[in-house]
Amino acid sequence: MQIKLVEVGLRDGLQNERIILGTEDKVRVAKGLLAAGVRHLEVTSFVSPRWIPQLADATQLAHQLPSLADVVYRALVPNRKGAERAAQTPIHEWAVFMSASETHNRKNINKSISDTYPVLREVMEMAKEQGIRVRGYVSTVFGCPYEGKVSTAQVLRVCEQLLQMGVYEISLGDTIGVATPKAVKSLLQECQQHIPLTQIAGHFHDTRGTGLTNAYTALEMGVRTLDTSLGGLGGCPYAPGASGNLATEDVLYLLQQEGIDTGIDLARVCETSEFVQTKCRRPLPSKVLQSHLAQ
Ligand code: HMG
Ligand code: MG
């Protein structure tokens, strides 16, 4: 089984940290991850630095990342201004993002769902002109911090709009980590009636400790791409209660034990997470990382 892990720690992980890492430290983290064998990295966001000051150095960072033939760097792009900034950098792939729930969408990107579509369409057109592939994120697919349960029909409506715009993949975000395997199965069963699961990525936050079991359920259903974050860093600043992403180390350990090779060296990821943990001055939540460091 071929599983693609997308390392989102530098973006989703750091966007929620109290301590802002310097660009040099971020480059060191990227190099550590590359040395560990990670090949897909979401490294930053071209969003408003007023909204996400942790990623205000997006342009500088993008220019300082090592250029390697088989590595894909991705960044979030929310609007025309973001696309103009991203287009001036060597970032390979963009990601547009929105929520399935109205209130989270407004809190996160300051627009209604219907007003978001034309803004993202413009980003898609600019990406097409540049020959850049774009992923689409849909947040709050299992629950919204403001509205509670979100209907599958609403999730599918947003996915369909993004696919029509031309995103090559949809990442389904459990933004506040409320899902359990039953919910994952049910949503994916509905989804696969309309979208091949090879075009779906699982983006689980581990707020309630269900991230790993949800990810495993998604893999059993046929999803082949998972977003993970080193050390389990992460969260959405505009989703109260959202904690870290599913940890890269925890997924790697599970896959390794199940005989699934990802080409990523767990011990080397742990070395990089230890560096981030020191910089962030807090123990990172990954259980596998902490057990590795205790040995
Ligand atoms: P806005 O304030 O509505 O934007 O923000 P605006 O168009 O009204 O512009 C206001 C000012 O911002 C202007 O500057 C613009 O130039 C500037 P002024 O004239 O006042 O000096 N501006 C920008 N500057 C730099 N880059 C830009 C940009 N756009 C406008 N791209 C906006 C709208 C979307 C920009 C804002 O709401 C924003 O940046 N939000 C950030 C949201 C975010 O990054 N959230 C976290 C990521 S999503 C997530 O974590 C979920 C995910 O992980 C999946 C999951 O877990 O569910 C993906
Ligand atoms: Mg996220």
What would you say this structure looks like, in words?
With 295 residues, this protein is an alpha/beta fold. The chain is built from twelve helices and eight strands. It has helices spanning 9-13, 23-36, 58-64, 80-87, 102-109, 113-130, 152-165, 181-191, 211-221, 248-257, 266-280, 287-294, and strands spanning 4-7, 40-45, 72-76, 93-99, 133-139, 169-174, 200-204, 225-228. An eight-stranded parallel sheet has the order 1-8-7-6-5-4-3-2. Helix 4 runs parallel beside helix 6 and helix 8 packs parallel to helix 9. It is globular and about 50 Å long. The relative contact order is 0.15. The mean pLDDT is 96. Bound molecules: 3-hydroxy-3-methylglutaryl-coenzyme A and magnesium ion. 3-hydroxy-3-methylglutaryl-coenzyme A binds at residues 12, 15, 45-48, 51-52, 76, 78-79, 81-82, 85, 97, 108-110, 137, 139, 173, 175, 203, 205, 236, 238.
List the helices and strands and how they pair.
Elements: E1 4-7, H1 9-13, H2 23-36, E2 40-45, H3 58-64, E3 72-76, H4 80-87, E4 93-99, H5 102-109, H6 113-130, E5 133-139, H7 152-165, E6 169-174, H8 181-191, E7 200-204, H9 211-221, E8 225-228, H10 248-257, H11 266-280, H12 287-294
Parallel strand pairs: 1-8, 2-3, 3-4, 4-5, 5-6, 6-7, 7-8
Bound molecules: 3-hydroxy-3-methylglutaryl-coenzyme A and magnesium ion.
